[in-house]
Amino acid sequence: MSMIACHRLIPAVGFPLRSSFLWTNPPCTSRFVQGLVRSLSSGRISMSLRAGIVGLPNVGKSTLFNSVVENGKAQAANFPFCTIEPNVGIVAVPDPRLNVLAELSKSQRAVPASIEFVDIAGLVKGASQGEGLGNKFLSHIREVDSILQVVRCFEDNDIVHVNGKVDPRSDIDVINLELVFSDLDQIEKRLEKLKKSKAKDSQSKLKEEAERSALESILKNLMDGRPARSVSLTDFEKESIRHLCLLTMKPIIYVANVAESDLAEPGSNPHVREITDLASELNSGLVTISAQIINENQVMASESLFQVEAELTELPIEERIEYLKSLGVSESGLGNLIRETYTLLGLRTYFTSGEKETKAWTIHAGMTAPQAAGVIHSDFEKGFIRAETSMLSPPDNQDPKRIHVLRGKSKFIKGETWSLLFKNFWIREVIKKADNIERLMSSRNA
Ligand SMILES: Nc1ncnc2c1ncn2[C@@H]1O[C@H](COP(=O)(O)OP(=O)(O)OP(=O)(O)O)[C@@H](O)[C@H]1O
Ligand SMILES: [Mg+2]
User: Fold this and answer.
1) Which among 54, 78, 112, 286 has most CB atoms closer than 10 A?
2) What is the rounded CA–CA span in Å between residue 347 and residue 439?
3) Would you say the CB of residue 294 lies under 6 angstroms from ligand 1?
């Protein structure tokens, strides 16, 4: 939904909303930065999951971390293994809906959803055997929920490439192979242990059986170079191997790090084209960013002040938007990256909105309306009465993308819900208790 349409909408409904559950469709793309800045300044975060920034040494991981994390101060420099201990920072998930709702409710603050980013040391060939900084770093990857694999796609003879040349396919293979080796090693040890184990009760026996059969099929796939995530497992099997935190089970997004001059037209960069094909072969996400930091000398030498991602976080919001527009980019790759990561983790957002605050709540895809309400408080799940979905469109009906809103009602929430106030703009449908929110939203979107 465009911001223009939102602005048109606001005066037409210029009264505060009562606090109610609002579930809306996935974030629209415009003006994310404003949401981000406002969100960050609110200083409160609702829930956090971890995404690890992974890649060969010296490809721009820490530079990216500094770009994404407000006040990120990871050391980023032109030499391999610059990072040793992981850098950790929390970022708000940019979501323009948050601000629209906060304005509608005249909220005192807006609280975004969040993700934790972890900048991990570079991996090299043989890491699983202890090469480079070896196994210790693989264990840092084990602790994250998803992987952002930074792939160097910029040519610059001054920046050392550990393998001597920019070659995304080979870089990706090196990292993926190390993750596979590490999992193989872990699975073999675990299977050995399971052989000796004598489960006490039938429940533990069942669990161990599920674990063994899952690990055996994963092992077979790993031997053929296929990641654990490509193996189809039952929910019970997945649960039984969760404790192993297998590296190749984690979802991956490839992050193509390009020169800032390629940001407007990434397709013109042959390395990006190569990763695009690879990512679709591997069923993984791809985001193109330019993490480059222009050092002071370069800025002084080129009057034209090239701003790229790392510097965007230091600019006032209006200037960021102007700058991105001047590059022909409708929004920063970082906004995309953060949102993609969030979606990749299987996370979705709904909002509560009132005068005190508008807040993004994180739910897992597939939760039912009562379960989603239960994220706020278990009483809301127990006392759930109903939810309704509605299409909220501006009065002049010019905006083709409407906000989809689900309204929850619980006997624990006092006061009128607000559908009546909006009746001119609503199509009302009652949702059954067991309905899956996400499916409902996508069927409404179709
Ligand atoms: N898009 C880009 N274009 C040009 N140079 C870049 C780009 N991104 C990062 N760099 C430069 O690459 C060098 C290495 O960056 P950085 O320290 O972030 O890498 P790293 O992956 O964290 O390395 P390490 O694994 O050693 O910690 C820095 O000099 C940085 O300025
Ligand atoms: Mg680093």
Assistant:
1) 54
2) 14
3) no
Beta carbons within 10 angstroms of residue 83's beta carbon? 23
Minimum CA distance residue for ligand 1 atom 23: 58
Phi, psi of 171 (to 5 degrees): -60, -45
Edge-to-edge strands of the sheet including 146-152?
A: 87-92, 114-119, 48-54, 146-152, 252-257, 285-289
Task: Please list the alpha-helical segments (H only) found in 287-327.
Answer: 296-301, 309-312, 317-326
Q: Are residue 236 and residue 313 in the same domain, yes or no? A: no
Residue 419 belongs to domain spanning: 366-445
Ligand 1 within 6 A of CB of 333: no
Look up the CATH number of the domain holding residue 219.
1.10.150
Contact 139, 44 (CB under 8 A): no
Report yes or no on 406 lying in a domain.
yes
Q: Which of 187, 212, 244 is the last residue of a domain?
A: 244
**ipTM of this predicted structure:** 0.99
pTM: 0.71
Give the position, in ligand 1's atom list, of the atom nearest the Cα of 84: 27
Instruction: Render pLDDT for 10-65 as a digit per residue (tens, 0 to 9).
Output: 212 222 223 334 443 333 322 333 333 333 333 333 345 788 999 999 999 988 88
Q: Among 225, 244, 263, identify where a domain stops.
A: 244
Q: Which of 54, 119, 159 to mutate to test the pocket of ligand 1 (most atoms within 8 A of CB)?
A: 159
Measured between alpha carbons, how far is 288 from 46 in angstroms, rounded to an integer?
A: 27
